[in-house]
Amino acid sequence: MGAALERVMAALNERGLAVRNRRGYFMAQCPTHPDREPSLSIRPVVGKVWLHCWAGCDKADVREALNLSLADLFDDELDKSRLPTPVVVAEYDYLDEHGELLFRVERRFPKGFRQKRPDGKGGWVYNTEGVRRVLYRLPAVLAAVAEGRTVWVAEGEKDVAAIERAGEVATCNPGGVGMGWHPSYGDALKGADVVIVADRDDKGREHARRVLADLEGKAKSVVVVEAAAGKDATDHFFAGHTLVDFLPAGEAPTPPPVVTEQEAPRRVRLTKASTIKPRPVRWVWEDRMPSGSITLIPGREGIGKSLTLVWLTAQLTRGTLPGVHFGAPRPVIYAATEDSWAHTIVPRLMVAGADLEMVYRVDVVTQAGREAPLTLPDDCEGLVAEIRAEGVAMLALDPLMSVIGHGIDTHRDRELRTALDPLAKLADETGCAIGALAHFNKSSSNDALNLITGSRAFSAVARAVVAVARDDEAEDGSCVLSQAKNNLGRLSVPHLRYVVDEVTLDTEEGPAKVGKLRFIGESDRGVTDILGNSDGDDKSSRAEAAEWLKNYIGAKANKEAAATDVMRDGTAAGFSRDQLKRAKAKAKIESRKAAFGEGWVWALSDPEESAKGAKGAGHGDMHPSHSSALPSPETAEVVQLFPGTETPQETSC
To answer: What is the pTM of this model?
Structure first.
């Protein structure tokens, strides 16, 4: 037994909490809530102990109740360098009656809060000395009291936002339970009907009692309620409950009765658009993968889909992915069912440069202590708790199909949405991006969305689709990544070309061969061009187009021509744009950026072809800058776009 596990067991025994051995891990009564059946999982892993309460209790609260520090969960002295750098993930403004900013609260990952006030010079001072303490959303609270509307009092700003999304006015005191309720806060609620939402733990209920005591004689009426699922108002709504489903304080939630859709009580709820705050789109991968949404990554077998997801994971954990988390490494939860973690996933993560301390394999343990596969929508609530607790930037599903619950027909839109809609809600509620792999079916089409195996709901629910395909006409065997759908941004982002290198990884049991994805530049040929042949192109017409290209470009000075000129003159000669693009490889023509601001050019890359193309034209040799051995300007741009990538070497996908 490691030192960390010994400390945890001693703390549980000291408090008389029952512990059960589950062969490799333990279940114990949780110290932060009334726990008849053990719901606290204690799982020893290499060098540390993992604690998780399946009733939804916060990990920090569990540690505090056991009088354990974060360092106590590690066998050796905690190396602070292994902890992530705190990152601001949300900000909450506290305003006075007139809407003037008094102070601001930062919520940080890992869990923590900091308060700051304006310094009067455009900056901030990280304290609130001399600043008046007021309720959160004070102007809205005063307006609601004047209009006779009910005001809800929650424990924190996150729960206030959840209640506001349900159409009600809500507030909380700064600092929540930690700083307590001041009697001056109740003055703003004089004459109001108030609903207090107590967190379902001892601290939350004690805080609610103090608020209730202060409001007696001030408020018109006061009711104290608790969530019907989870710990707080946020969990309550995420579980699908409504405002009318809150339980009277102190009542343990009971499982809802099993009813049919026809028997279930229903009501229509209207929410004024004026109460919904607009939010900007935040991009995990700039212009390609939005935060808080599902991004689908479809493609055929064996072209590096999983390596693309591994690459994204590595970039996020290192803080090198262009987007909202650039410069701020963030954790990733990785769910993979088709590959071995020891033989495939971890080696791939290592050669991609991922910070393994920030990548989490996701497992599910039932109340009976048995391991079970991650399943949607059943495990959405558990995922939400972990995403929030760890500040996760992306949930990687490799593939998405493998986590859809058994019994759900993935070819029927309505059934599939019972799994996908809660997943989309999970993303929206947490701000976590979902990166999900999908497979192409066997049909023939140049539309990536139509090729996704299963119901059309897969591509409909996803806000973005990043498709990949192997370019069989590329001499280096490279693949192409294209934006096939982008509901939240522009679709006209450049196609990217990548190869897969074979890397040797030294392990304790000997060398292992591992694939590593490497972007080599932009591509003027996209996935749509690769997948389909919609204009009836065949070998003879392609050969004819290739011959025209060689003669056309070979006759130019420097053996190159602007891409716009090629398309204009080629279509005038009777070839389609797609035919010209597909004939480019056969004609041994490369594309590259011209001088800054001058667009793309097509140039002959083979000296022999240059000579053939120049017969009778009277032009000199190919310009040395066209040599295929040199990295092209667009490759250099991509190397800068993706920090950590190397200068391209000749390889295949």
So the answer is: 0.51
Determine the Cα–Cα distance for residues 386 and 61; give it in Å rounded to an integer.
14
Distance CA 56, CA 64 (A): 15
Which tokens in the block code for residue 236? 């309550």
Q: What is the DSSP track for 467-515?
A: EEEE-TT-TT--EEEEEEEETTS-S-PPEEEEEEEEEEEEETTEEEEEE
**Cα(166)–Cα(272) distance, integer angstroms:** 10
- Does residue 302 come out as left (phi exceeding 0), alpha (psi in the -120 to 50 range) or beta? left
Q: Which amino acid would we find at residue 635?
A: T
CA dihedral of 223, 224, 229, 231, whole degrees rounded to 10:
150
Cα maximum dimension of the chain: 102
Tally of helices (H runs) and strands (E runs) in the chain: 19, 29
CA-angle at 238, arms to 373 and 88, nearest 5°: 95
- Distance in angstroms (rounded) separating the CA atoms of residues 268 and 289: 34
Which pair of tokens denotes residue 259? 């009813």
Q: Tell me the sheet residues that pair with 44.
A: 49
Determine which helix (DSSP H) or strand (DSSP E) holds 414, and give its type and residue range. Answer: helix 413-430
Range of 229-243, 253-267, 290-304, 530-544 with top mean pLDDT? 290-304
The confidence score (pLDDT) of residue 85 equals: 59
Counting beta carbons within 10 angstroms of the beta carbon of residue 560, is it exposed (0 to 12), middle (13 to 18) or buried (19 or more)? buried
Q: 298, 336 in Cβ contact below 8 A?
A: no
For residue range 628-646, list pLDDT tens digits in order.
222 333 333 333 444 344 4
Eight-state DSSP code of residue 343: I
pLDDT at position 542 over 80: no
Distance between CA 58 and CA 64 in Å, rounded? 10
Sequence-distant (≥ 6) Cβ neighbours of residue 76 within 8 angstroms: 3, 47
- Report the top-level CATH class of 283-529: alpha beta
Q: How many Å apart are CA 422 and CA 428, to the nearest integer?
A: 10
CA distance 531 to 296: 17
Please give the torsion angle defined by the CA atoms of residues 223, 226, 227 and 233, in that order, rounded to the nearest 10 degrees.
Answer: 70
The neighbour count for residue 498, using CB atoms within 10 Å, is 25
Q: 180 in helix, strand or coil?
A: coil
- The fold adopted by the segment(s) 87-232 is Dna Topoisomerase Vi A Subunit; Chain: A, domain 2 (3.40.1360)
With contact defined as beta carbons under 8 Å apart, do 592 and 521 qualify? no
User: pLDDT tens-digit profile of 73-126?
Assistant: 887 654 545 555 566 777 899 999 999 999 999 887 655 788 999 988 888 998
479-494 pLDDT, tens digit per residue, is 999 999 999 999 999 9
According to DSSP, residue 545 is labeled H
The C-alpha angle 353, 356, 362, rounded to 5 degrees, equals: 130
